[in-house]
Design a protein that fits this description.
- The protein is an all-alpha fold.
- The chain has one domain.
- The chain is built from 6 helices and no strands.
- Helix 3 packs antiparallel against helix 6.
- The protein is extended.
């Protein structure tokens, strides 16, 4: 009587560690960087003409997402424009209740995340827009109008950069 050979199960593999993203192709890196610089310079130019600053830190972070990670949901036009505007409105709502200040700004930033999540417009830089509104109490209509213009400008530059590099941006509009 012969016995069947015993088959050993392979030793379990150690979990692999996530690896950093691959380096981008030089042409893509150059195009993304150029798109970011172009968009931010356009914001400065429009702000200079209107005598209103348009280059606020959340918009620089928005452009970094649009140019550097155009496939992410955070980078899509719905999220860039909608997230920025909803967060500003959240900041104005908190401002109306609490007045300008750090405590209200902290609440506004946190609430903006919830509002964006419910509206399906995730855009993390926009939480900072709510904070800025709650701290600075800008004029309502002027701020919203300029923010809408700036957000649309970032998306437009993203579309042009996408076509220039062969990338698909946006992956969806609404």
């Amino acid at each position: 009587m012969t016995t069947a050979p015993t088959v050993q199960a392979p030793a379990p593999r150690a979990p692999s560690r996530p690896r950093p993203p691959a380096r981008p192709r030089p042409a893509l890196l150059l195009a993304s960087t150029a798109a970011s610089v172009t968009a931010l310079l356009l914001l400065v130019a429009v702000g200079t003409v209107l005598r209103e600053p348009l280059l606020i830190p959340p918009l620089a972070a928005s452009m970094a997402l649009v140019a550097g990670a155009p496939d992410l949901p955070l980078s899509q036009p719905r999220s860039v424009v909608g997230g920025q505007l909803l967060s500003a409105l959240t900041g104005f709502a908190v401002l109306a209740v609490a007045g300008p200040g750090l405590w209200g700004a902290a609440v506004a930033g946190g609430l903006a995340l919830g509002v964006m999540t419910v509206a399906r417009t995730p855009h993390s830089p926009a939480a900072a827009t709510a904070v800025i509104v709650a701290l600075q109490a800008p004029p309502f209509w002027a701020f919203l109008g300029l923010l809408a213009l700036a957000s649309l400008l970032l998306v437009a530059v993203g579309v042009v950069a996408g076509r220039a590099t062969g990338r698909t941006y946006p992956t969806y509009w609404i």
